[in-house]
Structures
1.
Amino acid sequence: MRKNIVAGNWKMNKNLQEGIALAKELNEALKGKTVKCDVVIGTPYIHLAGVADSIDTSRVGVAAQNCADKELGAYTGEVSAAMIASTGAKYVILGHSERRAYYHETAETLKEKVTLALANGLTPIFCIGEVLEERESEKHFEVVKSQIAASLFDLASEDFGKIVLAYEPVWAIGTGKTATAAQAQEMHAFIRSTLAEKYGQVVADNTSILYGGSANASNAKELFSNPDVDGGLIGGASLAVDKFMPIIEAF
Ligand code: PGA
């Protein structure tokens, strides 16, 4: 059966020393505790190796926030999936709306990134979600379905089974405006039925679908109590242990 996962997305915050200190503090806070979800932190590239070396990665998994769409070679400034895997990171966040909007990531480049991530043993946390205008014009289901289909539906069922999805309505990210628990459940159930149509009910039931967008200690319990919400991708509230731990413990 699918896993519950609470994953932090630090985005472009914390210098190396601050990041290692935060990761260690989280690792300590989780020591000796039994939590009902897997815990992951998504750090900037330069933090990955230092963070992975400073914590017990079986307790706190480490994620990159992006990877290159090329295997290796003359791509100045890029970081490959193989390099990420060599740091001890086990996950990679792909297709975040900030990368789609500000860095023009397309369904095609994301398809390459997913393939390379999987080939290097990384678990993609693949983000999808509509902008406000699309929700207001009731296109949100269509938009999310086509984001999933365009980048992921060429995968064989065995490979799709290794993907974690994160539904992040763009209007809820960093805005303090969370989707209601009902809106999250409605979309997550729709996503699961979309997966069932393509890959069958077993694969759909085994896929973890996280919610992201202004999730915090006060709304996590209600969001996570929905049958199709399997955890969260947490931005702002993952930057301090006293804000992140209550979300982990909301399961
Ligand atoms: P937020 O970000 O929790 O700060 O809204 C979530 C995300 O973008 O992953």
2.
Amino acid sequence: MAERKKLLRSLAGEVQAVPPVWLMRQAGRYLPEYRATRAQAGDFLTLCYTPELAAEVTFQPIRRYGFDAAILFADILLLPHALGADLWFSAGEGPRLSTVTTEADLARLRGRDDIHETLAPVYETVRILAQGLPRETALIGFAGAPWTVATYMVAGRGTPDQGPAHALKAADPALFDRLIALLTEATIDYLSAQVAAGAEVVKLFDSWAGSLSGEDFDRYALEPVRAITAALKARHPGLPVIAFPREAGGRYVGFARATGADCVALDNSVAAEWAAEHVQRDGCVQGNLDPALLVEGGPRLIEETRRIVRAFSGGPHIFNLGHGITPDADPDNVHRMLEAIRG
Ligand code: CP3
């Protein structure tokens, strides 16, 4: 019974004594079994586009820890790839893409209707997962939010301050807005196809939302997420949406109401006690343990885990980290964290 899954109950607003838990990047390099499958695939993109292997790494943390949700193994940069950008991951350097900074670059991209050929293996991964997950485990699909994806497309790589995207938005707002509009439309179709394949929840990762302020935050972090959420809910009534405007700070307040998202994911720069009072009043929140504690372990891991569970115990909550688990995390610390949550 889909309604009985713990994750979906929190997303529907239910307060649970023991919150559901999963971790961002739960399939990742901290797990030896991930490193083995990654080596078998050869490179990261092949892993993403080989459904059997992508499904295998998605299952691995579920087998090891029994998390309440599995998140599709893919990457937010597959969408620009499907739109026609070149994409490669060079070891130690992170992602690299061909850049979009001119009208001609934008004109060379494909339209929203042409993304599915490249992304078909991702939908197949979702189908394998929907078939093979334990019945109590919810399946989360995801995409990057338009602003964050645009920051990579404009710069051609990750940047510390998203400078190139800020510069383009200032120099040629019409061009920048057309890129955001294309990403918004393509993201709706991409996530809709994930849902059609069996994703039960979708999450929008806006990792660089924190570099937007004032009207820019409304225009580029809030509005695209509102539009995507509305379109998805129109196509898939009842679909829960998790929004992650990372490092939004004070702008977390009211974000769920303004976008229609069912849950706001919190990074660990905000205090759980503050977020319980100002953000959780609007509904479910997710977060927000510091990922560094899964490296450090010890008494602080247990104390902080308990503190977060306690702080959010008055409302609907999904336990998670404030950002992805890091490659140097100790897999045994994840067991210790789970023990502190589930008792
Ligand atoms: O959470 C999950 O387990 C699902 C899979 C997932 C990945 N990336 C796999 C991945 C998800 C949800 C993402 C999202 C993603 N990808 C974001 C948003 C979340 C965030 O972390 O802020 C961003 C910005 C990206 C872009 C990206 N992909 C970067 C910057 C990098 C390099 C950094 C790094 O950790 O190496 C990636 C690569 C990547 N995506 C890896 C994984 C497991 C590591 C690749 C490897 O195995 O070598």
3.
Amino acid sequence: MPLPDTPGLVLSSLADAGAGRVCTLTLNRPAQLNAFNGELHEALMAALDAAAADARVRCVVITGAGRGFCAGQDLADPAAAPELAPGAPPKDLGGLIERHYRPLVQRLRTMPVPVVAAVNGVAAGAGANLALCCDLVVAARSASFIQAFAKIGLVPDTGGTWLLPRLVGRARALGLALLGDKLPAEQAQQLGLIWQCVDDDQLATTAAALAARLAAMPTRALVATRQAMDAAGTMDLSTALDEEAHLQRDLGRAHDYLEGVAAFREKRAPRFSDR
Ligand code: T3D
């Protein structure tokens, strides 16, 4: 299935990375720091669906055009922003979340390939949590993460209430969410919120190298690892061990396991192909 033509709001590009292809999706509303309106949501979902359905794609990278990664909800979008006139009816933000943000989080966490966020600039509100939903987050040193929700009277959404305490623990999660301060990328790495912080001029090459590396790995095992870790958060140890046995049983029957062991024995690089 070809990637859809989504000029404008999400730029899709496919690059050969040796063992497979890396699909890079660039949020492209730079004048609004790539804040989400309905069209951007639709374009991103279409691009993620297409990447998921394209058997050539073995890793997805999400990044932003211009100086921002994503500033969350577009606070000027008439479909979502409150009308400030006295007596105007409130907007249904719950509906907005059900329509756009929940499917986005679920899409990201069930992608059949690993997803890397290459955070090129400020990531605020839903934009911060979009990045944190990805499997690996690499950020430019000048980038920052802001749980901006409390500043406008909202709770962290786009998975924030679930993700933050799991990533950094309750004390830090509440500090970030209640205060809404700008967290520089370097500190985000030190807290364990993200995987890596690199110099700005190294972001694109670092993300590309990480994606190429993931693309050459056993995709199905990587995705099962994400699935098991997400599920384990609500399981006791015994249930998590059951789940590990179940996943390992499946993976043990797959081509990539045979290939991995054969490559080890033959002292050569493996050629993984399952997806
Ligand atoms: O509908 C709902 O509200 C429910 C869903 C909620 C999910 C959420 O994401 S809630 C959180 C929404 N996001 C924010 O509150 C962040 C708002 N933005 C900012 O606080 C700042 O812009 C930043 C800290 C992200 C960056 O600051 P700075 O100084 O680097 O840039 P700036 O000058 O503020 O912004 C540059 C332009 O982007 C500016 O436009 P202009 O004046 O040059 O024409 C600004 O208005 C625009 N922009 C930034 N964020 C948004 C935005 N436009 C629309 N929506 C935005 N979220």
4.
Amino acid sequence: MLVMMKSNATREEIAAVCRKIESMGFKPHPIPGSTRTAIGITGNRAPVEPFALEALPGVGECVPVSKPYKLVGRELKEDTTVIDLGDGITIGGGRLAVIAGPCAVESRQQAREAAAPIAAAGARLFRGGAFKPRTSPYSFQGLALEGLKILAEVREEFGLKIVTEAVDVESVDLVERYADIIQVGARNMQNFSLLKRVGRARIPVLLKRGNAATLDELLMAAEYILSEGNYRVILCERGIRTFADHTRNTLDLSVVPAVQHASHLPIIVDPSHGTGRREKVIPMSRAAVAVGADGLIIEVHPHPEQAMSDGNQSLDPVEFGQLMSEIGQIAPVLGRSMA
Ligand code: PEP
Ligand code: MN
């Protein structure tokens, strides 16, 4: 059930409703909206009786939730969540967020050589894996702590916010210390202990769709994170597995409006993993912006042919500049500006 507060409800009234929900043995999730605060309730096994809550000062109405997810749905919050990372950098809302960088951090020099043209092209967020989930145990697994330290240096030198993956519960402690956003990869979308752990993290989470996950499964995975109290989640479409073999995955751009209909969380698109082919990244980026995505995550390597992972789908800095210029022309048509 959702408790919709009146638009003029005071902070004390909202706090009193939360205390009442706690006294009933449940967990309150007050989510401020543009017109009023809604309070989600979790931890109940059966429907919550509305009477005790409806009588409290400041309460507008109690409405049952019709969806299996309670906190990620638009029923709870009508307006799209805007995630504020500081320094004027946001994800969701009017500005298009572009996250760019190599698949993996390979060395200090490689990371700096990627970051300089990325920052110059106008992107504000840098990606790079320090912990890499690889199909083969013999493939490069990432530089771990050393990679995180290089990312922190990139943040200082270029003023970019850092997005990097945590592959398990143990790596979250480290990632949380060095990064601005924790990535949960496609392979881990239903790693429920990891989802609960990042739900208690103090920084936002980028949750990638599993390669065989439905919309509801993606939203329920996000629900795990919000139910632990971290409401700052960005969803990411990165391609799903189909019979098509002209691309690495099939980029399911139709999930963008579907997510936006069902959820208030921002959704970005990863055309790099979504296609697996460099020459398809710019066209699908244009399409992602046109379909209304809140941003893009793009693999960029200073020398793609030398990349230790995902070189085939990595843009070089010149191609990335081209991508930025093209989407910069499309974004205003959709009422968006570049972040
Ligand atoms: C990545 O972003 O480098 C990555 C491994 O992505 P995914 O989890 O979508 O495969
Ligand atoms: Mn990759």
